[in-house]
Amino acid sequence: MAVRTAPHPARSHARSRPVAPRRMPKLKTVILAAVAYVIAFIFLFPYLIMLLTALRPQSTLREATIFPSHWMWSNLANFWTGGLAHNLFVTLKVAGGSTLLVLLVALPAAYYTARYKFRGRVAFLILVLTTQMFQPTAMLVGIYREFYQFGLVDSIWSLILVNGGFNLAFAVWILNAYFSSIPRELEEAAFIDGNGRFGALFRITLPLAMPGVITALIFTFIAAWNEFVVALTLTTSPQNQPLTVALNSFIGQYEVDWQNLFAGSVIATIPVIILFALIERKVVGGLTAGSIK
């Protein structure tokens, strides 16, 4: 005889997990967040005004309103049709060449001073740091005379050399701190596995030091991208001028072409913002290198 089994009753006695009540943020946290948003708005407000001015018609620049009554998107298009795209490409070559020059010189210098305790090492690092005390504006006469004797005035190469030279000290110091924070035992283990000095550097040390390398490169790139005084002094022809100098042409003696000036400034700012946003985490990690051991 078949025995019918009753269906398994639902487990009503199963205890449901209590839902934890949502905690309200502390007053200190709310105040800190509010202050952070206010500070962020203060820093972003000039960029907002720059963007809104770039989209205003010339006839509405004196209106006492934040938002324009008529949006003029052709101001941004004039950047590409007015010849400034070439100056943007010159700026890219100068910033990229200066960054590559700093990379080629600062990496071996920082690695050698971090791994070898030679006589005069501290004096060398102090001498490198001392070069940061001199500003290019205080040495413009000497810089111009030197490049004039070498026939490099009004040349992109002069801008690459000057920007690379004045950003080299920062790169050497930050890379030296990062290489010093990497244990030597990792390289010694690579030596046992059959790697030489260059093999251990490129396979072990350099990948670990990549946040510091990116930090040095991004600061060099931004400094060369925004440089104005040396470029204004060493370049005379419009085809060799970077964008910072080319935008200065919108400032006349009696009138300023604000909408085109700000339109070019907006376009010149976008690549740097995107680049910094992509590598922001590694930049922060590189700046804190060597702070904790």
Describe the structure in your own words:
α3 (84-115) packs antiparallel against α9, α4 (121-130) packs across α6 and α7 (184-192) packs across α8 (197-208). The protein has helices spanning 27-54, 74-81, 84-115, 121-130, 140-149, 156-180, 184-192, 197-208, 210-226, 229-234, 243-247, 258-278, 280-287. The chain starts with 26 loop residues before the first helix and ends in a 6-residue tail after the last helix. It has 293 residues and is mostly helical. The mean pLDDT is 80.
What spatial form do the alpha-carbon principal axes imply?
Answer: globular
Residue share in helix: 55-70%
Overall CATH class of the largest domain: Mainly Alpha
CATH H-level homologous superfamily name of the largest domain: MetI-like
Task: Catalogue the unreliable spans.
Answer: none
Question: Count the strands?
Answer: 0
CATH topology of the largest domain: MetI-like fold
Annotated CATH architecture of the largest domain: Orthogonal Bundle
What's the number of structural domains? Answer: 2
Q: Radius of gyration, rounded? A: 28 Å
Major beta sheet summary: none
Beta-strand content estimate: under 5%
* Class by alpha and beta content: mainly alpha
Number of continuous helical runs: 13
In sequence order, what are the helices and strands, one letter per element?
HHHHHHHHHHHHH
N/C terminus separation:
79 Å
Q: Average the pLDDT over all residues and give the rounded result.
A: 80
